[in-house]
Structure prediction request, 439 residues.
Amino acid sequence: MEHHANLIPWQQLARRTGATLKWIPVTTEGRLDYSTLETIIDSSTKIVAFTHQSNVLGTVNDVAQIVVAAKKVNAITILDGCQSVPHFAVNVKSLGVDFLAFSGHKTLGPTGIGILWGRSELLAQMEPFLYGGSMIESVTMSEATWAPAPRKFEAGVPNMAGAVGLGAALQYLTKIGMENVHAWEMELTQYGLEKISAIPGVTIIGPSTPEQRGAVLSFTVDGIHPHDVGQVLDQYGIAVRTGHHCAWPLMKKYGIAGTTRASFYIYNTMADVDALVVGIISAQEYFKVA
Amino acid sequence: MELDSLYQEVILDHYKRPQHKGLSETKDAQVHHVNPSCGDEVTLNLSVDGGIVSDISWDGVGCSISQASTSIMTELVMGKSVADAYKILDNFSQLMASKGTMKGDENILEDAVALAGVSKFPARVKCALLGWMAFKDASVQAIDGSEKA
Prediction:
C-alpha cells in the first residue's frame, strides 16, 4: 500500500546492493495482512519501511506490531508519516521506530521541505549523501570532517523560507491541537463513509468503517472513469484527486485503473461531504450510469 | 454548462461504442502508450500497405476522453495514406494546443472536432492525444520495419 515515494527508492537500493525487496500483502478490506509478518520479516531483514497511514486507502497501520516484528530480527524501522503527522498526534518515542519522515506540504506548510527524524546513534553512523557548504566540521586541501547531524545532511544554502513556513504551519496545527484535528477528522470520516457508501454504484476502496483509518476517502463509481468523475466534481467546485495516487501497484492489486479520492481535513465541514455526494450523483446522471 | 463543451454527445457515443477496439491478430507494428500521471493505457496495432493504413486496432483503459479520442482517430486514419493521416494529426495537435480558441476544421477532423472543447481543459489535453501519439509512434515503426524488410 506504499506511495511510490516509499517504494521506488527501495527498488533502486535493492538493485544497487543486491538486496531483496519483500512486501507485506494487503487484504481486500485495505489492511496489511499481519498474519504474514513473521514469515516476511525474518533474520535476513535489514530494513522495514512502511507507511503510517495509506494515502489511498486511509488505513492507519499497526506500527507497534510491525516494530515488534522488526526488533526481533534487529531490523531498522522507517515510518512514512506524510499522512499521519498532519492528521493526529504522533510520538516517535512511544512508536519505537528508528526513523520517521513527513513532508511540509501536507501539514499546511510549504512545498520543497520536509522533516526526517532519526535516532541520534543511527544518524551519527550515517555518511552524508550530499557534500558542500555548511555541512563540515573542518576542511583541509585534502580532506574534510563532518558536522554532527543534522548539519552533515544539510549541505548548501538551507531552504530558509521553507523552514520558516513549515515552522509556522506546525505551530498553527499545535495551537489547534492535534487531538482536535483528529477528533474533527474522525467525525468527517464517519459521516463521509456513511454517505458515500450509501450511493448506489459507488464502492469505497479501503476500510469501510472508521476504526484505524483516516479521512482519506477513495472510491470508484461504476461506469465512470475517475478522471471523468473528477471533471464533473471540479465543475461543482469540489477538489478531489483522481488516478492512481502514486500507488500504481495498489491499483493493480484492486484491478482498477484508479480511484477518485476526497481528502478531508480541518477546513472541511459536513456540508462539504453533502456537496460531494450531490456531485457524485450528478456525475452518474451526466454519464447516464445512475 | 461548461461540461457540455468537454463531453460532446459524439465523445460519449465513442466511449460507449468504441470503433476498431480489440487487437488484430496480425500487425506491422504494435505500441503501448501510457499516461503516467493518470494510468490511462492504449495498445495499438497498425498495418501499413503501400503507404496506406490497411488495418488499425487498439485496446485500452482510461477516461472517456482518451478512449473516445482513440476511437475517433482510428476511424479517421483507417484507409488513408500515412501522409494524409499525419496532416490530420498535425491539425488535431494544433486544435488541442489552441486553448479553446479554435473550433477545428470539420472537413479534416470530422468527429474529432467534438474534442475541440478539451483544449480548454489543459489537464485533459494529454488524454485526448494519447491514442494519436500511439498511432504516430506505430506508423514510424511500421514504415521502418517495411523499409528494412
